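Contributing new complexes? Match this layout with S-adenosylmethionine.
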Amino acid sequence: MNINIETFNNWAKENKDKSMERGHASSVDQMFKILKDETPALESSFSFIDIGCGNGWVIRKILENKNCYYALGIDGAKHMINKATRYKTGDFIQSDIESFNFEKKFDIVFSMETLYYLKNIDNFIDKLYNTAINKKGSLIIGVDHYKENTSTLNWDKEYNLKTNTLSIKEWYEKLSKYPFSSIKKYQYGRKENWEGTLILYAQK
Ligand SMILES: C[S@@+](CC[C@H](N)C(=O)[O-])C[C@H]1O[C@@H](n2cnc3c(N)ncnc32)[C@H](O)[C@@H]1O
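Output block (do not edit by hand):
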């Protein structure tokens, strides 16, 4: 049993996935803007994967770009995936992402508000680098829960979750272990009592 997947499965049943989608929309717009600015990938045919896709809204959004020839979303929560597949656009797989084996590589590997739920982030990033990101491909990760964003540090208790809390430096170092050609970090949407979404972008 994975407590995080169980909690988000209940969120989907209670239709809280929609408020999460609204809450994450501006940070995801910013992540798309970074992709547009940093990589020419969006200008020609590309594939895309969303890790921890929730109800699949980012998959539907990226498929509005006619250059996206394939988009796959993965999430462990059955009710999130049930919602995602109702739209009949994009491919979706219900799986725990830590045990998921990537059978093909993607030009853009995307993840919003998911990777800090993993038990072993190092193993997962290793798997991403070696088996999920295409040559010259991009990885873009957004996280709101990190050490410096102190108003998020009570989420485990508040929402019945088990998080893996890293600092900005620790996130950056996790990517720096790999020979990406470029790694960038941003804090988007900072305001009082909120350090913003930490966005990490890396290109092979
Ligand atoms: C905060 S939600 C974000 C969902 C979506 N990215 C969004 O922005 O709306 C985190 C998602 O990660 C999924 N998740 C967490 N841990 C997971 C795991 N080990 N395997 C698969 N999915 C997981 C949850 O089911 C949930 O849908």
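Reviewers usually confirm one structural detail per submission. For this one: Residues 2, 4-5, 8, 20-21, 24, 52-54, 75-77, 80, 96-98, 112-114, 117-118 surround S-adenosylmethionine (CB under 6 Å).
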